[in-house]
Amino acid sequence: MGGDQDVPKSVLEAIKQGQWDFEPESIEEKRFDSTRAMPGTDEKLEVLAERVRAGLPLWHGHDRTDLDDCEA
Fold first, then answer.
1. Is residue 59 part of a domain?
2. What is the pLDDT of residues 9-22, one digit of tens each?
3. Residue 53: which residues within 8 A CB-CB, separation 6 or more?
4. What is the tens place of the pLDDT at every residue in 45-68?
5. Residue 43 covered by a domain
6. Which residues are CB-neighbours of 44 under 8 A, at least 6 positions away?
7. Which residue in 17, 10, 16 sits closest to 54, CA to CA?
8. Cβ-count burial 3-27 (b if 16+ within 10 Å, e if not)
9. Is residue 58 assigned to a domain?
10. 3-class state of residue 38 by DSSP
11. Where does the pLDDT of residue 1 fall: very low under 50, low under 70, confident under 90, or very high at 90 and above?
12. Domain with 45 in it
């Protein structure tokens, strides 16, 4: 192997390299922001895409999960 470039940073990189059993390093939720975007919206999909690009977990424990999950 030729150094760090052969070590995948994300699940997508691992799949491209044929590493089907790759498990990404755990990242504490305090290291990235949650989102109030509604599930299934373009806004939420963009947040998820940004997380993938940044090598972050897709889900945050404080992400909005439904219509009733809003601040009063």
1. yes
2. 777 888 899 998 88
3. none
4. 999 999 988 888 889 999 999 888
5. yes
6. 35, 37, 38, 64
7. 10
8. eeeeebebbebbeeeeeeeeeeeee
9. yes
10. coil
11. very low
12. 34-72
- Number of structural domains (the chain) is 1
- Please tell me the predicted confidence (pLDDT) of residue 72: 47
> Does some domain include residue 9?
no
pLDDT value, residue 7: 74
Between CA 65 and CA 58 the distance in angstroms is: 13
